[in-house]
């Protein structure tokens, strides 16, 4: 039996970020994952402004961000392109006052394969004094006792005072709380497929979200990457897939081959793999994220943005917040009751996620999306208003306020 203060299950962005923030504090930490890194992780691969913010926090902890100077690993993008249900395009860019002109993170976002990005976050932790990394270590069983937790893997047994569940959508710890059965109203299904030679129509490289009528309240995406590769995919609310008996692979194939606004982009494209599926537990409901001697972070805590499907930034933020909670309590808190962690996490993240959920529900009115995009393209003041809402989460709540649309109408 190997004894630790904390065991982190899952070495993706949430788990690795928590380990980074717990490092150098005198605690003995085990960071384990069922896979060996580098490994593929089916994802959209987009690193948004939330992720950039968390990476700067890790730079302060000693993470070398030169990874972002090598475009083969992290491809820089200038902003977002939103395509309304009728195909109207709205390009949004980071406001000038927030642009980074020095350092390694000179762009508002990047696209990086999780194969590369997750390995980049984990690699330095292998050499960190108080952290032991176990790969190919799948958790088979967890036993909770009054004063400790036993974690049983295929080839070793571990013991800890506290466990962090960073093990994703199928978290063994989340199942202990509430995720025995998927709630399709708060879950999205996604497909990813890498292509080479997809045609991009603008000089600036932009992350593209196509809100096509047939897949609302979801979207089809095209994200540019290095070496003329693109991450192409589709995400849709699971309840709608079930309700409308949708074959997501067939819909994605039809969009690529026949959609009048999209198919011409793929005439010379080469598929590099078959479509790969993944599940996204959305943060559209306030779920319990802690239990007796354990905390949940990232996808295990259902912290995926219900509107954009972005999860890496919230995963890293939750890892940081969990680490800060632990350090603030260590030595005098027994971690049997961690309700304070739930309250703190939802206070820090819940507002942004709730706003995203309200925006997602507005996608049930595609005419409204079309109307706002058209107005933004014809009015600089409305474009600036929307642009700030995308880059500043604190202002995004206006999108779910009916008064916002009244203001847009008055400006038009």
Automatic annotation (TrEMBL):
InterPro entries: FAD-bd, FAD/NAD-bd_sf, Geranylgeranyl_Rdtase_fam, Geranylgeranyl_reductase. SUPFAM superfamilies: FAD/NAD(P)-binding domain (SSF51905). Residues 5-317 form the FAD-binding domain. It holds the Pfam family FAD_binding_3. It comes from the Bacteria. Gene3D superfamilies: FAD/NAD(P)-binding domain. GO terms for molecular function: FAD binding; oxidoreductase activity, acting on the CH-CH group of donors, NAD or NADP as acceptor. PANTHER family: CONDITIONED MEDIUM FACTOR RECEPTOR 1, GERANYLGERANYL DIPHOSPHATE REDUCTASE. This is Geranylgeranyl reductase family protein. The lineage of its organism: Bacteria, Pseudomonadati, Bacteroidota, Cytophagia, Cytophagales.
